[in-house]
Design brief:
The complex is a heterodimer. By secondary structure, chain A is mainly alpha-helical. Chain A contains 14 helices and no strands. Chain B is mainly α. The two termini of chain B are 28 Å apart. The chains are: A mainly alpha, B mainly alpha. At the A-B interface, helix 1, helix 2, helix 4, helix 5 and helix 6 of A face helix 1, helix 2, helix 4, helix 5 and helix 6 of B.
């Protein structure tokens, strides 16, 4: 059935175009601002159509960005380490839970599920991690508290193992004499590639975007991730004046543009990777479905 | 009975290595999630870090008495609940509309493009969001220097004026969150049997009627479940939204302080641990009761979608 271009179609196209523009335009402003000449910003504010462009914000970053590069490195290391460890912990716990006849399965299932319903909250967690595990100003604070294994991801992986890999495959492997561990590593893991891709994406994003742990546990700026540097900078402009003092920059510090440039640099990896990973990302959200 | 035990023993033996596999994760979960639950008793203590939590003297309900004697207790409860209500109503309405519009886009590439762009804000941290908002609202921002002059209005100091913030926070929330829930609704809509629409079209139903008579009714279970889950979380808020976006501005607290930010400030900025612990306890318990209630309701309407 061919329909003529009707009111409904026009409305829906306008809605989608507006929403897309609404979603993207703020990023454009950030990006353009980072390429705008400082004097223009001081006079005309952040603008979509600056009359004077300049790379000086990025030049400044390259020349004086020791802390930025360091933080960038920390973000990358923590993201990689956290994703590997988190993925391992999630899969190792989720796989046994997917066995319908494993004794104690219901208990462990409930244990995971309960962490989603109820939590002790910030004060007890903070107290435990700082007093018992000495996380204050430890680099491990970016890795361990809260983020390493989320109950929601365990449930996601468990459902995948349960629904997408038929039990007969396991049984026939068992009958052939394979041990449970062999079945897990040789059969279940290769078959679980889609959920692994999704988990890597979700956990990786959690780590790259995390600023909360750094905000709570770190006061030593040397340990900051890029998100923490951004966080600190927007709340105190002192960051720039300090840095400028150390390297004795003379003349105009392109502070407004530089701030935006650092935000661009902190976001860029995610934005560049996103178009390639979008499909998996959407799949993951659908898999998590309403229980997300 | 004997038989069952024997079977269990066999099962335990059969899966013995799987139990070993679970140990590291189990240890992490106990430390990260369960030990802090026990730490909720801090709310009933007069915390003194120099003697340690366990040796700190008991305070009975004193911490709660102090908390609820302040005007803060009312403000944070009111803000948390009313923001969440606004998010639930506006967020789901807009997400359903977006999903319905997306479902009508026939070209796969076109749909991926629209969906992809609407989802971008979701993958960005709230720190970066605060930069984006700053680029619009600061004294040098796009609003003050370009938009308001264009409309002939005076610039204003956005970060000091409470009245704008309910709107700003709702808009930022929608901007960041619509993509995610519209993906879920879209997958529900795409699961609807296409022949229903064809039959309706043959009967002469226009697009509005088809949406009203087919899509919305069939989407109802998903909507109800999502809404119930969100109601279950009504005592919690996204710390990033309420802390980063207003840039922790003290002048805005009346409009931006929620339970999560109150707990954080008490613990790490004001050093008022006991008060903070009491607020955290209040959130955990009331929050839990609300989750249970919401789940009970879901169970009544659509048992399959209940959480437990």
């Amino acid at each position: 059935m061919k329909e003529k271009l009707n009111l409904y179609q026009i409305l829906r196209t306008i809605l989608l175009a507006l929403l897309s523009a609404f979603a993207i335009l703020p990023f454009a402003l950030l990006f353009i601002a980072s390429l705008t000449k400082e004097s223009f910003i001081m006079q005309n504010g952040y603008s979509y159509f600056p009359k004077e462009w300049s790379f000086s914000a990025y030049e400044y970053l390259i020349a004086n960005g020791a802390q930025i590069f360091r933080a960038y490195g920390i973000s990358i290391i923590i993201t990689v380490a956290g994703t590997c460890l988190g993925l391992a912990l999630t899969l190792l716990f989720a796989y046994p839970l997917s066995k319908p006849d494993m004794p104690g399965r219901r208990f462990f299932n409930f244990m995971v599920f309960f962490t989603i319903l109820f939590s002790g909250g910030l004060v007890p967690s903070y107290t435990m991690w700082t007093t018992v595990f000495h996380m204050k100003n430890s680099i491990l604070a970016l890795l361990i508290p809260g983020l390493l294994m989320r109950g929601f991801y365990v449930i996601l992986a468990k459902s995948y193992f349960q629904a997408s890999i038929p039990g007969e495959i396991y049984e026939s492997a068992r009958i052939d004499g394979a041990s449970e561990v062999t079945v897990f590593s040789r059969i279940a893991i290769p078959l679980a590639k889609p959920i692994i891709a999704t988990l890597v994406l979700f956990i990786g994003l959690d780590y790259w975007n995390d600023w909360n742990n750094g905000l709570i546990y770190l006061t030593n700026a040397k340990l900051y991730s890029i998100q923490n540097v951004l966080n600190q900078m927007i709340q105190t402009i002192t960051f720039l004046s300090q840095n400028a003092g150390q390297v004795s920059v003379t003349g105009n510090i392109p502070s407004n543009a530089v701030r935006m440039a650092i935000a661009v640099v902190g976001t860029l990896p995610v934005l560049i990777a996103y178009p390639f990973l979008q499909k998996w990302f959407v799949k993951g959200i659908v898999m998590g479905g309403v229980k997300g | 009975m004997l038989n069952r035990i024997r079977v269990n023993k066999k099962g335990i033996y059969k899966y013995r290595w799987l139990y070993v596999m679970m140990i590291p994760s189990l240890i992490y979960m106990i430390i990260n999630n369960y030990v802090p639950m026990a730490g909720l008793v801090m709310a009933f203590k007069k915390i003194n870090f120099s003697v340690g939590i366990w040796k700190s003297p008991w305070a009975g309900f004193d911490n709660f008495r102090y908390l609820f004697a302040t005007s803060d207790a009312w403000i944070i409860t009111r803000n948390t609940i009313s923001y969440n209500l606004a998010f639930i109503v506006l967020g789901n309405t807009l997400a359903v509309l977006t999903a319905m519009a997306l479902a009508e886009v026939k070209s796969k590439k076109g749909r991926a493009f629209f969906q992809g762009s609407i989802l971008i804000p979701y993958i960005i941290s709230y720190v970066v969001v605060s930069y984006l908002v700053y680029a619009f609202l600061s004294t040098n921002g796009f609003f003050n220097k370009t938009l308001l002059p264009l409309l002939g209005l005076e610039p204003t100091n956005w970060y000091l004026e409470t009245i704008y913030w309910p709107f700003i926070l709702v808009i930022v929330f929608l901007w960041k969150g619509i993509g995610y829930s519209s993906v879920i609704y879209l997958s529900s809509i795409l699961g609807i049997d296409g022949s229903l629409y064809e039959a309706a079209a043959l009967d002469g139903a226009n697009a509005f009627q088809r949406a009203k008579l087919i899509t919305i009714p069939l989407l109802k279970p998903t909507i109800i479940t999502l809404v119930m889950l969100q109601i279950g979380r009504i005592f919690y808020s996204d710390f990033g939204l309420f802390y980063q976006v207003p840039q922790n501005s003290g002048q805005l607290l009346k409009a931006t302080n929620v339970i999560d930010t109150y707990v954080y400030r008490g613990l790490l900025q004001l050093g008022d641990v006991s008060m903070s612990a009491a607020a955290g306890f209040y959130q955990a318990i009331v929050g839990f009761v609300i989750v249970l209630g919401a789940n009970l309701l879901v169970k009544k309407f659509s048992p399959d979608d209940a959480l437990f």
